[in-house]
């Protein structure tokens, strides 16, 4: 009774084996065989069940064969993906460019061959960011070909698929090389273009800092008259309103030397208003404000500043330093 379905099952198994060995991907043939065998075995199960007590024994064989046919797909459907995920298999690996051989050739002094190997990968993965950055680095550092390296980086900047952070990395690298080549005006144009390309972002803020340092730097301890320093700072900030260093020094001059603590607070508040400031800068300014509160005999204001540091950066070293300051303040009291 079970020879027909068994023959179909054997035929299906043989077909699957042959298909695997020959790397064929036809899904129709095995599906027809499985459905045909399954249909016959269902008919047999129904027939056996109608035979009474004897049929309950005979039904075991076709039910077992039916289970063999479909247990694999059922497991794939219900748990295969989860199992594959746990075991690290079953997921299609996304192809990625490989530059290890090119880097090895570069390190061994074969820069031109390295670039050829990179170009081979870039043909398969057009516009790949890391490949182009590596190519520009070899062109600049090993071949001493600044013009070609500059062209490679400008090409990256013109490609729309890259993330803002990648564009910023490429353009900052170009600015560094332009500075090394003595091309300060070209460097200024590169940084200005980067700043203006991403307004209202951390990239704008970082680019603005580099641009500001090309023009001006001031120290609140400069021995010149305080009013002269204030005037210079205000002129700089009119030209570079995002200049953190100058605004901080202006605040220090207002508080320490100009006798205008209210203006000092105002300048620091302008720094805090930018949402893209770095944690280390924010922590420094809060500690500075704590110092000023203590100078003004306002320990509660100092505590609030230090507590802000702890609340803003609980997982950074700044929080531990603020806690240590709070402990010392309590010991003094």
Give a short synopsis of this structure.
76% of the residues lie in helices and 0% in strands. With 333 residues, the protein is mostly helical. The termini are far apart.
What does this structure look like?
By secondary structure, the protein is mainly α. It has four domains: 3-71; 125-207; 216-271, no CATH class; 278-333, no CATH class. It is 76% helix and 0% strand. The chain is built from 17 helices and no strands. The protein has helices at 3-21, 28-49, 53-58, 60-87, 100-107, 111-124, 129-141, 146-158, 164-180, 184-197, 202-215, 226-239, 244-256, 261-272, 279-295, 299-312, 317-332. α1 (3-21) runs antiparallel to α2 (28-49). The longest helix has 28 residues, at 60-87. It is flat, with a radius of gyration of 36 Å.
State the main characteristics.
single chain, 333 residues, mainly alpha, 4 domains, 17 helices, 76% helix, flat
List the helices and strands and how they pair.
Elements: H1 3-21, H2 28-49, H3 53-58, H4 60-87, H5 100-107, H6 111-124, H7 129-141, H8 146-158, H9 164-180, H10 184-197, H11 202-215, H12 226-239, H13 244-256, H14 261-272, H15 279-295, H16 299-312, H17 317-332
> Low-confidence runs (pLDDT<50, min 5 residues)?
17-28
Shape: flat
* Structural domains: how many: 4
**Tally of DSSP helical segments:** 17
Number of extended strands = 0
End-to-end gap: 97 Å
**Structural class label:** mainly alpha
Secondary-structure element pattern, one letter each: HHHHHHHHHHHHHHHHH
Strand content: under 5%
